[in-house]
Amino acid sequence: MTDIDRPRPSAARALIWTLLGLCTVGNLALSLYGGPLAVHAVLGVATLLCIAALIATAVRARR
Fold first, then answer.
1. Contacts 24+ apart (CB under 8 A), 17-23
2. Per-residue model confidence (pLDDT) at position 28
3. For 7-26, what is the HEC assignment?
4. Among 10, 26, 43, 63, which one is most buried in terms of CB atoms within 10 A?
């Protein structure tokens, strides 16, 4: 595949990757310094949603 054939990354994917990183770092910080279980759960669900969205965009891009 050449650079001409390769699709350009979208702003949505960049936003999802950024959100995934923030959720992961936030969950790590809460684990290290202690935090309420509800916040851990919210960040965990957000992380799973980001992963699902990245998989969905990758599958759509292959078609």
1. 17/50, 17/54, 19/46, 19/50, 20/47, 20/50, 20/51, 20/54, 23/47, 23/50
2. 93
3. CCCCHHHHHHHHHHHHHHHH
4. 43
pLDDT digits (tens, 9 = 90+) for 6-57: 666 688 899 999 999 999 999 999 999 988 999 999 999 999 999 999 999 8
Contacts for 17 with CB less than 8 Å, ≥ 6 apart: 50, 54
pTM over 0.85: no
Tokens of 30: 């809460």
